[in-house]
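User: Please predict structures.

Assistant: First:
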Amino acid sequence: MSTPAFAAERLVLKYGIFRESFSVEELSTFAQTGELSGLLRVNLALAQQDPKAIRQYLTKPIKVNPVFLDKVLNSQIGNIILDQISQVISTPSQRANRQALRAALVLSANQDGQVSLIEIIKNYTTNEVEVDGDRLQGAYRQLRRLQTSLQDLLRV
């Protein structure tokens, strides 16, 4: 699996008043192995977050048709979905969130016909990506709704 030329390297994880910067690789290692770095362990404890639940939201894959996903994300309903997810995963400047998120979703889907939050974060097209940890579960639910919507549209 190749990494895109412009992939996120840093992650700013926000939990309420807590805000900490990590390498995306650090979060990816946690997602893949369950192994927490010291800094990530401390921050999740301070934010009173369950690492197992966070890991589940990061890694649980959602199957999508990459071509159809691209078409939907470039529609009006796709823009609404992107705006909702970008309230959780965004650019540091809060600009071009739709474009960065759309690219990350499509890159993730093209790799294996599915997307996960960790893939989206890794494929984010800015050097740094901000994630609102308090709303991570909501972002996962939005992706599940997107999957359901795509399946419904394919049946029509």
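Second:
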Amino acid sequence: MTQTGNMTAMSKAMQDCVEACMSCHAVCEETMSSCMQMGGQAQMQVMRALMDCSEMTRMCADMMMRRSPMSAEMCAMCAKACDMCAEACMAMPDDPQMMRCAESCRRAAEMCRAM
């Protein structure tokens, strides 16, 4: 990334955070699809957590990329949504997709907290 006007290059930490958020967003979307196929009432709580996390990670990455002055607060909220989603996914330890999602959520939460 080059410097243009007052747009400074994104730090490595910020780039890593954007990548972790985008990756987490994608995994949450895949996991929602997997959840819908399973059906059942227990899935509703997980679906809510997945939807929140998916939206938050996408918005957080967008805000960081456009250097929003609100991105620090967004990162804090995003970390919380990722933690909640990881917890929800951990309720199904036998499901490999849920475990992949929990891992991705934990990584994104960690990166967001570092911001």
